[in-house]
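[Automated response] Your request has been received and processed.

Submitted sequence:
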Amino acid sequence: MVSLKLQKRLAASVLDCGLRKVWLDPNEVNDISMANSRQNIRKLVKDGFVIRKPQKIHSRARARAAQEAKSKGRHTGYGKRHGTREARLPTKILWMRRLRVLRRLLRKYRDAKKIDRHLYHEFYLQVKGNVFKNKRVLMEAIHRQKAEKQREKAIADQFEARRSKNKQARERKKERREDRLTSGVAVSDPAPAKKEAPAKKQAAKPAKK
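Generated structure:
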């Protein structure tokens, strides 16, 4: 039997694959054995005497099924675990995830003008201090704080309105009094108080011997 090692090596180089992927037609051994250059090999490939074998199928169907079962919680008991709980899912990773979620929410609220920069900074520090355990608690705290600020603002506005109203009333009263004085309306003076009669001086009694 003719050795076709050279032809297989050249074919692997031309087809850009490994030797095990090269198929040489057993019925055309004589023609293939005469090819001693890459140009001749390219002609044989064009004629179909030398073929690159198709890639073998490596199915991931079983792997996908196993992964789907694991996502449902199957095959994850004590006997399947390697490493401590901290090693499998570090608490630092959980902390980073939670912190990023809360900070993302604060940024979104600030950009949407739902909270001002002062409230943002206040809640940012509280998030860093582990005050809120999840996004729902943070949203409730934000709404509660905003409602409290609005209530305080309404009370302050009412107080300011009452002050301005009283001030205007005092000014009107003062103007009316000045108008009366300028128009010559006599204001009745109160009756003079009666003078008390001076107390009689008692005669000094002679001292007893």
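Summary generated for your ticket: The longest helix spans residues 135-182. The chain has eight helices and two strands.
If you did not submit this request, please reply to this message.
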